[in-house]
Amino acid sequence: MSSPGASSGLGEAASKYFAQLGATVVLGARRAERIKHLAMEINSNGGKALAVTVDVTKREEVKGLVDSAVKEFGRVDVILNNAGIMPLSPMDRLNVDEWNKMIDVNIKGVLNGVAAVLPYMKEQNQVRSSILLLSQGIKYSLVRLFIQQLNLPFVP
């Protein structure tokens, strides 16, 4: 399982949970030290984890995360697109830069994850392959409607 957004919150909890169930997890986040620590924790508890620093707004970095999963473990069956942000400033402050960053992370980040993992899932021709789109940021925004339209298992 590849998990961008694994350094805290839902992504961290999900990564630990799936590792306890026996899944191999590839942790991705901008906060390198946090995911390295999380990978060490999972590995010391008998799981398998790899930490990869990634900014989901950069397509090549997300591709690198998924490529690392395949190179290290031979395949990728699930991607948990969990990175998300939600600026908390009132709308009338017109923080358009914050809005653009939210779109870059919450929408483009998800699409970058789909673009990185879908070729491998198609190549594996595995019906169980899934693209899971969860985000703490998107649950508070209109972006959620867009993301929900993508939240379907991949079936070749």
Q: Tell me the strand order in the biggest sheet.
A: 1-2-3
- Termini Cα gap: 19 Å
Indicate the overall shape: globular
Mean pLDDT rating = 81
> How many E-type strands?
5
Specify the number of helices: 5
CATH superfamily, please? Answer: NAD(P)-binding Rossmann-like Domain
Structural class: alpha/beta
Provide the CATH top-level class.
Alpha Beta
CA-atom Rg in angstroms: 15 Å
Main β-sheet: number of strands, strand sense, barrel status? 3 strands, parallel
CATH architecture descriptor text: 3-Layer(aba) Sandwich
Fraction of residues in helix:
40-55%
Instruction: Give the tally of structural domains.
Output: 1
Order of helices and strands: EHEHEHEHEH
What are the low-pLDDT stretches, counting only 5+ consecutive residues below 50?
A: 135-142
Entry keywords:
156 residues; alpha/beta; Rossmann fold; three-stranded parallel β-sheet; two-stranded parallel ribbon; 49% helix
